[in-house]
Amino acid sequence: MTANSLETNLIQALGLSESVLKNRSGSQVRVPYAEKDGRLVHVSTVERGLKCHAVCPVCTTPVVARKGDKTRHHFAHYPGANCSAETVLHFIAKQLIYEKLQTAVALKQVMPVEWKCIACSGRHHMNLLENVSQVTLEKKLGQCRPDICLLDTNDQARALIEIVVSHRPDRKIIDYCNQHNIPLIIFRIVNAEALEKIGRSPNLNPSLVLYCLRDRCPDCGGPLFEKRLFIIASSCWRCGAPMQLAAMEINQTLHGITHFSAADRLIAREKGVIFREHFNKKSHRRELAVACPSCGVVTGNRFAGFQKRITLKRIGICRGKICLNCWTHLDEPV
């Protein structure tokens, strides 16, 4: 994935093109957490008004616990307080996640995380705390300083966590994760509801995870997909003569000859598949396609897919892996 495509995917996945802080127009973000006796407390656990004896964790000024009947219970600054809502949201989210991870590591608990990969579009899951022995805040790693760092017993980073309010994730942190092949876990925090979700849930539900569990292409670093060759006995859609169809299944999608390597085409020919060069009107170029041995008409991918669905369930020939970014084939030996 190129830097430009990654940047585009990040903006779309995190919704960074939208305005995220309503308080900039004068309204207030109703934050449900404050600091009391050196730790974060929820507004539901303290008395109302000044009797809460709590302060803002960022500017350390006293806050009021507003627990009325009309609005969501929250802590509020005194009028005129100069404290950024963005900074408060970022700080509290970081502390909540840090404390949750610290507790889980101390109790030797697992922390399952599931996400949709923006590199391969598949769904992945992992235990975020596997081989993790400590959790640190803003540890300097090379030229970057992530919000939270998960370390193993050798003090090596196993995963990094970034809290995003309105800014984009630091490119240096993304590059560090790519270079060391570790996950970057991103949480998008835009309002009090996001903080409540972190505080209530026993697990972590990140907005985005920049990490793919698939093997990586040796040429471009993109994800590798298994490919399976299907040879299907069929008949020509025009003349009815018997013929062999060939298709390659990659990531649960059927593809034509464009996704075949030279070795794949050789195996297909040995099994009776006839290839013929023809002009593709969609791509406006000449390319190979499966052809009828009798009348010579070529067969498209849709017909091959239809034939595969109506035949009995069969297992394709495992042909190794392919990178859909640079079209590198890692073929199984013939």
Description:
- By secondary structure, this protein is α+β, with helices and mostly antiparallel strands.
- The chain has three domains: 28-80, no CATH class; 84-213, tt1808, chain A (Alpha-Beta Complex), CATH 3.90.1570; 224-331, no CATH class.
- The protein contains six helices and 20 strands.
- The protein has helices spanning 3-14, 85-106, 171-180, 192-200, 262-270, 301-310, and strands at residues 33-36, 39-42, 49-55, 62-66, 74-76, 112-116, 123-127, 134-137, 148-151, 157-164, 184-188, 208-210, 224-235, 242-250, 253-255, 275-280, 285-291, 298-299, 317-323, 329-331.
- Strands 8-9-10-11-12 form a five-stranded mixed β-sheet, with helices on both faces. It has a five-stranded antiparallel β-sheet with strand order 15-14-13-19-20. A three-stranded antiparallel β-sheet has the order 3-4-5, with no helix packed on it.
- Strand 19 (317-323) and strand 20 form a beta hairpin.
- Helix 2 packs parallel to helix 4 (192-200).
- The longest helix is centred in the N-terminal third of the chain and has 22 residues, at 85-106.
- The radius of gyration is 28 Å and the shape is elongated.
- The relative contact order is 0.10.
- Mean pLDDT is 87; it is low at 17-27.
Short recap of the structure:
With 334 residues, the protein is of the alpha+beta class. 22% of the residues lie in helices and 32% in strands. Strand 4 (62-66) and strand 5 (74-76) form a beta hairpin.
